[in-house]
Write a structure and sequence with these properties.
The structure is a homodimer of 442-residue chains. With 442 residues, the first copy, chain A, is mainly alpha-helical. Chain A has three domains: 2-116, MgtE N-terminal domain-like (MgtE N-terminal fold), CATH 1.25.60.10; 132-248, CBS-domain (Roll); 263-441, SLC41 divalent cation transporters, integral membrane domain (Tetracycline Repressor, domain 2, Orthogonal Bundle), CATH 1.10.357. In chain A, 69% of the residues lie in helices and 6% in strands. Chain A has helices at 2-10, 18-26, 30-36, 42-51, 54-63, 66-74, 78-91, 93-102, 105-116, 139-151, 176-179, 188-194, 210-220, 240-258, 263-267, 271-297, 300-305, 307-337, 345-374, 378-408, 413-441; strands spanning 132-134, 160-164, 170-175, 203-205, 224-228, 234-239. In chain A, helix 2 crosses helix 4 (42-51), helix 6 crosses helix 8 (93-102) and helix 18 (307-337) runs parallel beside helix 20 (378-408). Chains A and B meet through helix 2, helix 10, helix 11, helix 13 and helix 14 of A and helix 2, helix 10, helix 11, helix 13 and helix 14 of B. Chains A, B: Belongs to the SLC41A transporter family. Chains A, B: This is Magnesium transporter MgtE.
Chain lengths: 442, 442
C-alpha cells in the first residue's frame, strides 16, 4: 500500500480526468486496486471502471456495492450506461439486475433500447444525450436552455445543435462554430436562411450497418453523426470517440479472423472460451494437413525411391503458403478499407498473379540451383523449380480470388479464406512437386 | 460519356460535399474521370482529389494544369496542402515544384514546416488553422474575429478556442460548448475563473510519437488535440478525422507486417516495389524452409526405412505454425492497443502456453489415433502425438515471448516475429517427430 499512499499524496483525484486516474490504477497490484477504487470520486467511478481493461473491470465491480455501482451508472451517458450494464451482467448477473432495478425509469428504458440493437447496428453505439431545438425558436432562448442542460450535466461534448420539426424529424444540423456567429436575437431558421452554408444534416439510420457508419465518418471527416430511425426521427448521435474504438475493434477482428482467432473469446482473458475457439480453427487446419498428407501418400513409391524428395517437399508448400498469405492479406484489408470494390476484381487478381508469378520464377531459379547442387542432381532442380512456379502462381490467384469470391457471397472474407488458401497451397505444392518428380525423375 | 451526362443532369456538383463527388467519380471509367474532374468546382477540387484512391489521384493530377492544381492547393487547409504536395511530388516532381512556386509564401512555409517532420511525429499530422485568443480579450470581440475568419474560410471545423499568452504559449482550451454559455460582455479569463469547469488544455508535443497521440485521443475521448512545441508554444491542432486515417493506417501496417508485406510499397498500386518487398520476405522464408529441410535431412535413414513418416511429418509442423500464429497475433495486437504492458509478460506467456498445451494434448490424441489406424502401427500414433504436444507447447511459448521480447528491444513486434516463429515451429516440428520416430520406432 505504500505506492498507493504516494499516489494519493501527489495527486488530487477529484480534479483529474478519468483517463489519468485509470493510468495510475493500471500500475497498482490487484489488492491495491480494490482499495484505491474506493478513493475515486463517485461521479467519475463509472467512466474510470469502463476505461479499465476487462480483467480489472471485473475486479473493480466485484469490490463495489450495489449502491456504489448504481451511483456510478447514473453518472454515465446513455451509451456508456448500456456498455457498463452489459459488462456488469457478464461478471455478475444478480448484481447487474439489482443495479438495473435501482436506476431511474428513463435510464432503464434507454438501456433496454440500446441493448435491443444488434452490436453491428449503428443504434447500439449511439447516445441519447442531444442538444436540439425547433427552427422557429430564438437563438438566445436555445442557448439559455443549453446553459441549463450543461449545468445539470445533461449533455457533454456537444458539437452540433440539431434542429427538428414538431414530429422530432431531423431537419438541420448546426455546428457550434456556426451557431456562435448566428444573430442571437433572430430565430434559428432566419439565421439558416441568411447564411451561405448548407445545414443539411449528415445522418445514418439506427439499423444501418456500423461498418457503413464508419465509412461515413471517414469520408465526410465528421466528429459527430446524427442517428435517425427509418422515418427520419432523430434518435441520438454517435461521436468520434466511439469511432476510435470501433475502428480499432474492426481491425482487431479482421486480424484475429485471419489468424483463426475469435475476437470476443480472446477479449475475456479467460482461457477456456479462447482455447475452444482456437481449437475449432486448429481442427480445420488438421483436416487441411491430413488432406495434404493424403496427397503425399499417393506418391509413397516415389518417396521411397528418393529420400531427397521428402527432404525438399516442405519448401514448396511453405513458400506457396507465404506468398498466398501476402496476396490474401492485401486483398482482405483493402476490401475492408473500401480501397477496392467488386468492379476491381479482375485488376486485383491480375496484379496479384503477376507479382506471385515473378517471385515464383525468381525463387524457382534460386531453389532450383540449391536443390541441384545439394543433391547433385540437375533434374531435381528443374522439378522443384517448376513446382515452385506452379504453386506461387496458384497462391497469387487463390490469395486474391478467394476473398473477392467470399465477399461477393456476402461472407466475411477474413474468416474462411486462410484455411481455403493453405489447403490449396499445400495440396498444389505437394502434388506438383511429387507429381513432377514421379514423371520426370523416375 | 453517357453515364457522366446522366450524373450531371441529376446532380448539382457545386452544392455537394467533396465525399459525395468522390463517390460518383469512383464509378466512372478512367476516360470519363479525367473529363468529369474538370466539372468539379475549383474550391472543392483539392479535397476531391485527396479523397480519391492513389491510382485515381495520379490520373487526375496528370490531367490538370499547373494553374488548376495551384488553385486546388490554395483552397486546402495546411495539413491537406502538405499531403497534396507530397502525393503530387510522387507523381510528377516538375509539376509539383511549379505548383509549389505558384503558392503564397505563407503556404510554402507551412508546407515546408510540415514536410520537415518525420511521418511518425505528431507535428507531421497537424494543421496550422486555429481559433485563438488572449485571456484578457472580451468574449464578444473574440467571437467577432471568429465570424470574420469563418467568412474568409480561414478556419473550418472548429471545436475549441485556444487561449495563449503573449508569447503564444498555450494556457487554456475552451470548448465551443463552453464558450457559447460564457458571458460575452466579460473577458475570457473572467469567464474561466467564474466557471467550475477545468480549462486546462490537453496537448501533445510536435515531436511526440504519433502512436502516443492516438492513445491520448482514445483515452481522453478527444475530437481535437492542441500541438505545442517543447516550450509550450501553440503550433497547431490534430483533429478526429486525422485519427480515423491514422488508426486505420497503423492497423494496416501491423496486419501487413505480420504477413510479410510493406504497407507503403503496397499502397502504390505499382507492381515492382510491392513485388520487391514481398520477395525480401519470401527470401527469409526460404532460408527458414531450407533450415527445416536440413533438419529433415538429418533423419534421411529413418525416412528411407519408413515412408509413413514422410507422409505424416508436415502435419506436426503445420499445426505448430498455426497455433503459434494464433498466440503471436493476439500478443502483437494487444501490445499495439496498449491492453498488455511489459509487466504483464509472465501472465501472458503463461496463458498462451496453457492454451497451446491443452490444444496440443487434444490434437495429439486425435492425430495419434488417426496415424495409428491409418498405418496400422500403434507406436507411430504415440510418436506423432508426443511431437504434437512438444511443438504446440513451443508454439505457445515462442508465439507469446517473441513479440514481447522484440517490444522490449524496441523493435516492432509485428515485423520479424512471424519468421522467427515459423522457424521454431518448423524445426521443432520436424526434429521432434523424426527424432522420436528414430528413437522409438527403429
Amino acid at each position: 500500500m505504500k505506492n498507493l499512499q504516494d499516489y494519493l499524496d501527489s495527486h488530487e483525484l477529484s480534479e483529474m480526468h478519468p483517463a489519468s486516474i485509470v493510468k495510475i490504477l493500471k500500475t497498482l497490484s490487484d489488492d491495491e486496486l480494490t482499495q484505491a477504487i474506493k478513493l475515486v470520486p463517485k461521479d467519475l467511478l463509472g467512466d474510470v471502471a469502463l476505461a479499465l481493461p476487462d480483467r480489472l473491470f471485473d475486479d473493480v465491480v466485484e469490490s463495489l456495492s450495489v449502491d456504489e455501482l448504481s451511483h456510478a451508472v447514473r453518472e454515465l451517458e446513455s451509451d456508456d450506461q448500456a456498455a457498463f450494464m452489459l459488462e456488469l451482467g457478464e461478471v455478475d448477473v444478480d448484481k447487474a439486475s439489482e443495479v438495473f432495478e435501482s436506476l431511474h425509469e428513463d435510464d432503464q428504458e434507454e438501456i433496454i433500447k440500446l441493448h435491443n440493437y444488434d452490436e453491428d447496428e449503428a443504434g447500439s453505439h449511439m447516445q441519447f444525450e442531444l442538444f436540439t431545438a425547433f427552427k422557429d425558436e430564438i437563438v438566445q432562448d436555445v442557448i439559455k436552455r443549453f446553459a441549463r442542460l450543461r449545468k445539470e450535466n445533461e449533455v457533454e461534448n456537444v458539437q452540433n445543435l440539431f434542429i427538428t420539426n414538431k414530429d422530432n424529424k431531423l431537419e438541420y444540423a448546426v455546428g457550434l462554430d456556426d451557431l456562435l456567429i448566428f444573430d442571437f436575437s433572430k430565430t434559428v431558421i432566419e439565421n439558416i436562411e441568411a447564411s451561405d452554408e448548407s445545414f443539411e444534416p449528415i445522418k445514418a439510420i439506427d439499423t444501418q450497418d456500423i461498418k457503413e457508419v464508419v465509412h461515413i465518418f471517414e469520408e465526410f471527416d465528421l466528429s459527430v453523426l446524427a442517428i435517425v430511425n427509418a422515418y427520419g426521427v432523430l434518435l441520438g448521435r454517435i461521436t468520434s470517440d466511439d469511432m476510435y474504438d470501433i475502428i480499432n475493434e474492426h481491425a482487431t477482428e479482421q486480424m484475429y479472423h485471419l489468424a483463426g482467432l475469435d475476437d470476443e473469446a480472446e477479449e475475456d482473458d479467460e482461457i477456456l472460451p479462447a482455447g475452444k475457439k482456437r481449437a475449432t480453427w486448429l481442427a480445420f487446419n488438421l483436416i487441411t494437413a491430413i488432406a495434404a498428407s493424403l496427397v503425399i501418400g499417393l506418391f509413397s513409391t516415389t518417396l521411397e525411391s528418393m529420400v531427397a524428395l521428402a527432404i525438399l517437399m516442405p519448401i514448396v508448400a511453405s513458400m506457396g503458403g507465404n506468398a498466398g498469405t501476402q496476396s490474401l492479406t492485401v486483398v482482405v484489408r483493402q476490401l475492408a478499407l473500401g480501397d477496392i470494390s467488386q468492379g476491381d476484381a479482375m485488376r486485383i487478381i491480375k496484379k496479384e498473379v503477376i507479382i506471385s508469378l515473378i517471385n515464383g520464377i525468381l525463387f524457382a531459379i534460386i531453389i532450383g540451383i540449391i536443390a541441384a547442387v545439394w543433391f547433385d542432381k540437375g533434374m531435381l532442380g528443374v522439378v522443384i523449380g517448376l513446382s515452385m512456379i506452379i504453386n506461387l502462381f496458384m497462391a497469387g490467384f487463390f490469395g486474391a480470388s478467394v476473398p473477392l469470391f467470399l465477399k461477393k457471397m456476402d461472407i466475411d472474407p477474413a474468416i474462411g479464406s486462410t484455411v481455403i488458401l493453405t489447403t490449396v497451397t499445400d495440396v498444389v505444392g505437394f502434388f506438383s512437386f511429387l507429381g513432377l518428380a514421379t514423371y520426370i525423375l523416375l
